[in-house]
């Protein structure tokens, strides 16, 4: 190996490009012991400078290599994502829509609702209840024999397709609307203590909600925002099952001697009519006119919401001022039933075959896509956000509630799939007997109550 002298010592010769570079730059320094002073690089010798240059070049080379690899991988991922997206569009079709680009939840905010300043001067309009009048009665027992296992008693009864079709006609009639006893059976299901029934039968104005299967926390109405008049005259009823009652007690929400937790009157339901807790929840949601037969008005509040508005202000604004007998908000994101069907399948909210059977029947019976550009749409949306419903217990409102419940009882428990079909069919079959339904904005719904997430999702 060749040697060369550096600072009086013999060192191995460095070969190659790097060695040549050092040799050429450092040649003039051989044999020199003096440190150059007063120059730009101060005490740094050319030997050290060469080493720093080499280090910088090496780091820069590594950076370029890593950056190039990352750009290559990113380009491959974008190409793969683009291909996957195109394939998905081909499979789903252009009418279905595309999945959300981000997993982050969109934020939706309340908007201002122009309530009256005080309930002290509220008076029900004299001509308010001048709606379509007819008599609606309900089947309370089926005469069918249940000796055959195919005909076990059902809470909603065994409505035939012919009976279903005729029930949409607004006329004096007796129809299926839950609480139907089977022959030889003493209970319909959804059993309530007689003392609680006596309380409920005296209610004239009701705010109700439910928790079944311990699916939620108990959220009390904000007492300081509820007037003394409403506290004295409005029934606040929370339906729970025994499992939920025990869970609430473990969380410090045991009812007092009168059965109250805050403003909520806790009513325990036994012998639930369905194994599906979501479907069981449709009983108090849709059938408030059956549970509170003397009530003139009712407000349904989902258990994920805490009421923050006086009930009388809500009734005045959404019913009296709008001259409506039924008020419900539109969905915050979707407006077409086709979109709702796809979303239910994407999230596996219900059996896909059952959804298809229901949806195919609705299409064959005249359900069409919602066209937002059509100024003649009977509703601003065909998909509701059903967590807040304000009702006057008029014949048409009660009929609509029964019809909607019957669809949920017969098909899937996803009531957003059956809302538009039920409303449009009722409207189509009673063109001379209007149903005054007010669909309000979702941001107004958010102004009425504070929203939370469920304790557990009911599938």
Automatic annotation (TrEMBL):
Transmembrane portions of the chain: 49-73
Coiled coil regions in record: none
Domain (TOD1/MUCI70 glycosyltransferase-like): residue spans on this chain: 137-454
Pfam families noted in UniProt: TOD1_MUCI70 (PF04765)
Superkingdom assignment: Eukaryota
Keywords: Membrane, Transmembrane, Transmembrane helix
Protein name stated in the entry: TOD1/MUCI70 glycosyltransferase-like domain-containing protein
Organism: Quillaja saponaria
């Amino acid at each position: 190996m060749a040697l060369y002298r550096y600072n009086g010592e013999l060192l191995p010769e460095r070969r190659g490009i790097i060695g040549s570079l050092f040799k050429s730059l450092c040649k003039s320094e051989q044999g020199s012991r003096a440190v150059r002073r007063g120059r730009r690089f101060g005490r740094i010798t050319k030997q050290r400078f060469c080493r720093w240059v080499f280090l910088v070049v090496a780091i820069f080379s590594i950076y370029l290599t890593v950056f190039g690899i990352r750009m290559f991988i990113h380009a491959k991922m974008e190409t793969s994502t683009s291909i996957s997206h195109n394939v998905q569009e081909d499979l789903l079709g252009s009418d279905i829509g595309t999945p959300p680009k981000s997993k982050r939840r969109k934020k939706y905010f309340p908007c201002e609702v122009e309530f009256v300043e005080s309930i002290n001067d509220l008076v029900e309009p004299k001509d308010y209840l001048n709606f379509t009048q007819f008599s609606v009665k309900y089947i309370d027992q089926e005469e069918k024999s249940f000796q055959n296992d195919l005909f076990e008693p059902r809470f909603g009864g065994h409505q035939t397709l012919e009976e279903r079709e005729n029930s949409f006609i607004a006329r004096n009639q007796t129809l299926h609307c839950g609480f139907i006893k089977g022959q030889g059976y003493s209970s319909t299901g959804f059993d309530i203590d007689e003392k609680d029934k006596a309380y409920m039968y005296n209610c004239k104005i009701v705010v109700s909600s439910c928790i079944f299967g311990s699916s939620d926390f108990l959220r009390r109405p904000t007492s300081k925002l509820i007037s003394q008049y409403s506290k004295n005259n409005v029934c606040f009823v929370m339906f729970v099952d025994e499992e939920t009652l025990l869970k609430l007690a473990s969380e410090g929400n045991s009812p007092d001697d009168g059965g109250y937790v805050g403003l909520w009157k806790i009513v325990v339901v036994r012998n639930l009519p369905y194994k599906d807790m979501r479907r069981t929840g449709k009983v108090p949601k849709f059938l408030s006119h059956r549970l509170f037969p003397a009530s003139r008005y009712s407000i349904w509040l989902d258990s994920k919401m805490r009421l923050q508005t006086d009930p009388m202000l809500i009734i005045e604004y959404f019913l009296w001022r709008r001259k409506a007998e039924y008020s419900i908000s539109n969905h915050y994101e979707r407006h077409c039933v086709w979109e709702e069907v796809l979303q239910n399948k994407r999230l596996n909210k219900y059996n896909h075959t059952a959804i298809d059977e229901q949806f195919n029947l609705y299409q064959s019976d005249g359900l069409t896509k919602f066209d937002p550009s059509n100024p003649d749409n009977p509703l601003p949306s065909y998909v509701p956000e059903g967590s807040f419903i304000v009702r006057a217990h008029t014949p048409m409102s009660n009929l609509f509630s029964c019809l909607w419940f019957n669809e949920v009882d017969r098909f899937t428990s996803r009531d957003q799939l059956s809302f538009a079909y039920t409303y449009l069919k009722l409207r189509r079959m009673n063109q001379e007997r209007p149903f005054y339904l007010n669909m309000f904005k979702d941001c107004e719904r958010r102004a009425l109550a504070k929203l939370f997430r469920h304790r557990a999702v009911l599938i």
